[in-house]
Amino acid sequence: MTATTVGASVKPAISPKPLGIFLAGAAVSVLLGVYAHEHTPVANKLPYDFIWSGTIQMKASLATIAVLLAVVQVLLAMRLYGKLKWPKTMPPWLGDAHRLTGTLAFVVTLPVAYQCLWSLGFQSGSTRVFIHSIVGCIFYGAFVTKVLAVRLHGLPDWTLPVVGGLVFAALVVLFLTSSLWFFTSSDAPNPAF
Question: What pTM was estimated for this model as a whole?
């Protein structure tokens, strides 16, 4: 048996910071899912469609733009973390470009998410739609977690890459279960813009 020093602090088994940010993200995901499930969808009422011929065309296009911006952001992050060696000398604006592309990707998703939540709610009519509904909620929860991880200091080194990877993976799954399906499936509505 060893003696303990009076007043010595014992480190918790799980650091409260990562746990807190993961719980915040999980809360956002759950709240979005509950809202989407409980909200009465208002299908066939379009709050906006901007320049597109219909809402589904708008959603597919904006989701595609978001994924392309996210790919650029991942490539910039890989250079910032030294995983890519090009360009040889890192430009001073690279960090700003990384943040800007991430912000733009997120902003582009907002009209899509609003339209999905407002007019469709949580759907489970097919496997594709069910996965899309679940992952849509996860995406925004993961995004909240990533924003908090960027702002908090003292987190484990793995936190930001893991959470950033989750945000990116969720966005790709959303793209695959919506935009790619829309552009390639014979079951999808006519993709004429």
Answer: 0.83
